[in-house]
Design brief:
By secondary structure, the chain is α/β, with parallel strands linked by helices. It is built from ten helices and nine strands. Helix 7 (about 180-185) packs across helix 8 (about 200-215).
């Protein structure tokens, strides 16, 4: 079975031509294997139903997520315009209140998590998740790059900022990236022969900020579907830091990733101008996702 994120990316592609067809596609996929889908899918179903002028069904999906499954969402996502038909609905307001309360509780006790306990291999691969993801999703996404190679140890860093039930996000500021930077700096003193870091989407921005603004470094930096706002304001400092720290840079982005592909191309172009050891691979027919067959170290 395809990963949930891949199904959601296909749904977004279909939605570009109309919500009703996308709603039907995702509803069918969910009903076939409901146990394989989480809060993000039910949120998509609710928004798609709302956008397809099915407010009652939109409310049912939210009720299933929040009342039945005990999940919750970041407050602002329940203010989406696709749910505007529900904004004065008493049941919707009740669900949103419950969700907001759970979110506040999660924020009050959340902290960044670094999975590393001790050195168990010669080399280290550090994986950083994107938004609406978590450390386990990052591990699952990146594990194929290491495979069964026992020379590599894989670890993850999970954000301290909740996004929804069981998922986290990164903010594009000067503090959110610090757990990534501290983890990288700690690993530099553990005697690894080689350290590689892989980021997906917003995780790429966190890695670049860590390298640019702190002493954090690695030998190989792999950016998949890079959403990197840091590039807009700190291009020169970012490229200089990668160059001075002699980091090999590999950039991968889907040909259909309209938001991230321009950033990927810009980073590559700026890097080549200054002599970075950089490559850019555009993945045909891919959106904002990992390719079906991942590259290898």
């Amino acid at each position: 079975m395809k990963k949930e994120n891949d199904i959601l990316e296909t749904t977004l592609s279909i939605a570009e031509n109309g919500y009703p067809e996308a709603y039907q596609f995702l509803r069918n996929a969910y009903q076939e294997n409901p146990q394989n889908y989480g809060p993000q899918t039910l949120y998509f179903l609710s928004c798609l139903a709302g956008g397809a002028n099915k407010p009652e069904e939109a409310l049912e999906w939210l009720s299933k997520a929040i009342r039945d499954n005990k999940w919750w969402y970041r407050p602002e996502v329940l203010e989406d315009e696709d749910l505007s038909a529900l904004k004065n609905n008493k049941e919707f307001l009740s669900l949103k209140f419950i969700s907001d309360e759970r979110y506040a509780q999660a924020v009050s006790r959340s902290k960044a998590l670094f999975s590393w306990k001790k050195k168990t291999a010669d080399n280290l691969f550090l994986a950083i998740h994107g938004n609406t993801q978590n450390g386990q999703i990052a591990r699952t996404d990146w594990e194929p790059i290491v495979g069964r190679n026992r020379e590599w140890q894989m670890e993850t860093v999970q954000s301290a900022e909740p996004d929804g039930y069981g998922t986290y996000r990164w903010s594009y500021d000067m503090t959110s990236y610090l757990p990534v930077a501290r983890s990288m700096e700690k690993m530099q003193n553990q005697g690894y022969h080689k350290i590689a870091c892989g980021g997906f989407s917003a995780g790429c921005d966190m890695l670049l900020r860590a390298i640019t603004f702190t002493s954090a470094r690695c030998d190989l930096l792999i950016l998949q579907s890079p959403w990197i706002p840091v590039l807009q304001e700190y291009t020169e400092a970012l490229v200089r830091a990668i160059l001075q720290k002699k980091i090999e840079l590999r950039i991968y982005c889907g040909s259909e990733d309209e938001d991230c592909l321009p950033m990927a191309k810009q980073l590559y172009a700026e890097g080549k101008k200054t002599g970075l050891n950089a490559t850019l691979t555009i993945q045909a027919n891919n959106r904002h996702q990992f390719p079906e067959e991942i590259y290898h170290l």
